[in-house]
Specification:
Elements lengths: L1 H9 L2 H12 L6 H7 L12 H13 L3 H5 L4 H7 L2 H7 L7 E19 L4 E17 L2 E14 L2 E4 L14
Antiparallel strand pairs: 1-2, 2-3, 3-4
Length: 173
């Protein structure tokens, strides 16, 4: 199914790149979970499990509350974005005809260390989560699996949400 999706969108490289980045980090959140978390709290407290933190991050993304998302991003990823204003301007948005129907958390593992080979960094105390996204674009529906990583911070978790293309001089590759 994923291969069919990939073949379909290879015809439209811009759509493929945009959807891959958005789907990587976009989800829905049950209203009762969101209300319990508190709308005003930017970073999730230390007691929030990694899956809850990720769901809060995705809910803010879905609502276009990018300014609040910024404080939930790890320092390395913030540097790669080039600052809050660039993040707010450049963060991928979901198109009007594309909808994320659901997200399933398939697995959560907390690792002592993990190396991000793409960005050539090693982190300690990392939550690795496997997520399955259910997406609809116009009349077609598909599922897409992604792995995301959070690092523990003094007051909770931070997401390693990097820009699709690293800004030159903003971080090492």
């Amino acid at each position: 199914m994923v291969n069919t999706f990939v073949r379909l969108f290879r015809r439209w490289p811009a759509v493929e790149a945009f959807l891959a980045r958005v789907v990587e980090r976009f989800t829905t959140w049950r209203a009762d979970d969101f209300e319990r978390s508190g709308r005003a709290a930017a970073p999730a407290p230390a007691t929030v499990a990694p899956a809850g933190f990720e769901m809060r991050f995705m809910k803010l993304h879905a609502e276009g509350r990018f300014d609040e998302m910024w404080d939930m991003i790890a320092d390395d990823a913030q540097r790669a974005w080039g600052g809050r204003e660039m993040f707010i301007r450049d963060v991928p948005r979901l198109g009007d005809d594309t909808e994320l129907l659901d997200v399933d958390v398939l697995d959560v593992q907390v690792l002592d260390t993990w190396t991000d080979r793409r960005h050539e960094r090693t982190y300690s105390d990392v939550a690795r989560m496997a997520l399955r996204y259910h997406v609809r674009k116009e009349w077609k529906e598909w599922t897409l699996d992604r792995e995301v990583h959070l690092i523990r911070a003094a007051d909770g978790w931070r997401t390693l949400f990097y820009p699709a293309q690293m800004k030159s001089g903003a971080g090492s590759r």
